[in-house]
Amino acid sequence: MGSPGLSNSAIATRVGLSEPISTGGPTELDVIKTRELEKFLEDAGLYESQEESIRREEVLGRLDQIVKKWVKNISRARGFNEQLVQEANAKIFTFGSYRLGVHGPGADIDTLCVGPKHASRNEDFFGELHRMLAEMPEVQELHPVPDAHVPVMRFKFSGVSIDLLYANVALWVIPEDLDVSQESILQNVDEQTVRSLNGCRVTDQILRLVPNIKTFRITLRCMRLWAKRRGIYSNVTGFLGGINWALLVARICQLYPNALPSMLVSRFFRVYNLWRWPNPVMLCPIQEGSLGLPFWDPRRNYKDRLHLMPIITPAYPCMNSSYNVSTSTLRVMMEEFRRGKEICEVIEASKSNWDSLFEPFAFFEAYKNYLQMDIASETEEDSRNWKGWVESRIRLLTLKIERDTSGVLQCHPHPGEFSENSKPFHYSYFMGLRKKQGTNPRENLQFDIRLTVEDFKRDVYAYSFWKRTMWIHISHVKKKDIPNFVFPGGVRPLHSTKSTTETRSVPKSRESNSPQAVTSRKKRKQDEMNRGVSLTDSSSAAVSGSDAGLVDETTAKRQFEADVVDTLSNVRRPENLSGHDPEVAGIVKSTSPARPSSAACGSSLGITTMEKLVIEQSLQPNISLQGTLDLPDGLGGVQLKSEGQNNDKDQEIKPSEYFTTEQALGAATEAEGSSSYSTIQQSLDVEELEPLELTASTTMASSSTHVPAQKPLIRFSFTSLAKATSNSAS
Fold it and tell me: Boundaries of each Poly(A) polymerase central domain copy (predicted)?
């Protein structure tokens, strides 16, 4: 198995686009909190046993032998002489959670088979290799998906789930020491091979770019568990998948290279609660490369400007791994980041424990209105295909509802499905609905989205392998009418009136002011502030004796200011971002950052404080299509005043003249009918799907030939609002 060109530990002291926020080492409190966190992860069952780990290694070794035998067989069948047959080779690589070292018990292994140019994908990989695997008794549930955006063969080998991709590169012989991280591996290959290779290339690049692999892995395990518990771990429904969370965590590790996992978790929420989306998260400068492959570049690619939460992959061709995120799902994630930040502040003060951070999100208590989507088919194979297709379209329904209600009605799709034991091959999906925050509370809005739903159903029924036994039904349900089978054990909990805000509230803290905790926090604050810039005359003042037992708001504010100052002051100027033409160094600036409202920030140390610390960045109104792409981080999209500047007045940050989120939403309709924004999309893990085109809403007359006549009435009247919209009717 291949792990090309990668050491077991980090080799660089400084990685990323900017200097670290803090290089300070851990305090005694950090050590204690990290031990508690690791114990929590172990108790949560995130680590596999030694026996299971050994079995995985054995399965991968056996699979490597199989593909080597397979490539020799097809070489012999093509009439190659015996010497060439013996030299013929194929090699297995791993990527995804297994390669990152964060997989759990029972998790599948993302694998890639790299074969020579004469071993074709359709005839040889999905033909001969599929036949060989089907004849092996240790292989079960073999399921090829040759027509997927990233062609994959799924199966279980001795009980271990395998997702096997294939890349036939432009080599006659595959060397055992093949390094897939080299750009030359992408020469003269098809798009499917580029997508398949980039899974491995991105994973290995992430491990190269983090300063400490061990702390990165522990932190990533923590954030993956948190995202799953809070219902925002799902790339396919418009949230973030495994590779997205890995990139976000890796960036925090770069900003705090010597921190332990407990501090990295806290800083994760602090940083991304303030991140000014759609400024992208990047681990390194974007490489333009020499092969002419399309990469993420909002200057040239109009659709790249519409991405709301860009998280850019570090391997060429660099792409946005989170293009599925919508306005609604971004709003949900930002609320979760705020909640996480507030809880971590309580945990750091030793007033709560890690259980409160990982409390599952009460999805069916959070909203008053839901969409219920029921799907069914008649056979196991049809159910697997139909279910996978519908799941890949759910995020399209979110986009259509946002479009047809002008963004006022926002959606929260549940990332998983539900089923009743009495109804085989029948699955239900749910989507929470609520009005956009900031709309007039006195206005009684009604949303009739029947046409929107029918439009979505036509898209679903356009499935190439649709059968008359496959159907979908969508209905509006109130919270009190949610079916019992969605609840654990089929038992509805006691009546709850929790609102969405309450389900994301910070648990009541336990009062604790141990001298050890206070000393450790003061020590960390002092370390971080020593690297900062004094913003005011009192910003470096020590905590008074009367406040020695508390870390009050002023102290927290100073610590926060030190973090922000360090980040901003170490962001390089655009002209210094790169000294080489192939490097695209920078990040797009945005007028309309997708940040929480002042009410959602939950802290006086929010965006306002940050804006008072910085001055506007001079921006060119016209974006040139030549040269490099200038991108400071989401926290560093603005520059600090230099020492020679006038400090009498704090200067406000003015909007960028590039593009806004509102413009992006409005342009979604204008872009209807156009081609995909990129001919090459990365396969970062097998759940990645091709980008969806949001076409204009069509009339009911433009029907599909085989859509069953199902027209549920879906009209929403939010009674919490006061006034009917009768003016529009008149």
Answer: 215-359
CA 72 remoteness from chain centre: 40
Q: Which helix (H) or strand (E) holds 144?
A: strand 139-145
Longest distance between any two alpha carbons in the chain, whole Å:
87
Residue 119 gets which letter from DSSP?
Answer: S
Place of tokens 């092996």: 136
Token reading at 463: 């499935």
**Per-residue pLDDT tens digits for 143-175:** 998 988 899 999 999 999 999 999 999 999 999
Tell me how many degrees the CA angle 406-407-410 measures, rounded to the nearest 5: 140
Closest CA to 683 of 180, 106, 287, 307: 180
pLDDT at position 63:
97
Task: Return d(Cα 274, Cα 257) in angstroms, integer.
Answer: 20
Q: Answer positive or negative: Cα dihedral of 633, 609, 591, 407.
A: positive
Alpha-carbon distance 320 to 313, whole Å? 6
The first and second tokens of residue 228, run together, are: 């799953």
For the chain, count helices (H), then strands (E): 20, 13
- Asked if residue 493 has a cis previous peptide bond (ω within 30° of 0), the answer is no
- The dihedral formed by the CA atoms of 70, 72, 76 and 80, expressed in degrees to the nearest 10: 140
pLDDT band at 323 (very low <50, low <70, confident <90, very high): very high
Q: How far apart are CA 168 and CA 122, in angstroms?
A: 11
SS3 44: coil
From residue 729, alpha-carbon distances to 405, 444, 724 in Å are: 16, 14, 10
The SS3 of residue 489 is helix
Cα distance between residue 196 and residue 151, in whole Å: 8
pLDDT band for 700, please (50, 70, 90 cuts).
very low
Flag whether pLDDT at 717 surpasses 60. no
Q: Is 602 helix (H, G, I), strand (E, B) or coil?
A: coil
pTM: 0.74
SS3 state at 5: coil
Residue bearing tokens 């890349």: 167
CA distance linking residue 127 with residue 139, whole number of Å: 16
Helix (H) or strand (E) holding 299, with range, is none
CB atoms within 10 A of CB 520: 21
Name the 3-class secondary structure at 173.
coil
Which one-letter DSSP state was computed for residue 123? I
Residue 251 neighbours by CB under 8 Å, 6+ apart: 16, 271, 281, 282, 283
Distance CA 356, CA 362 (A): 13
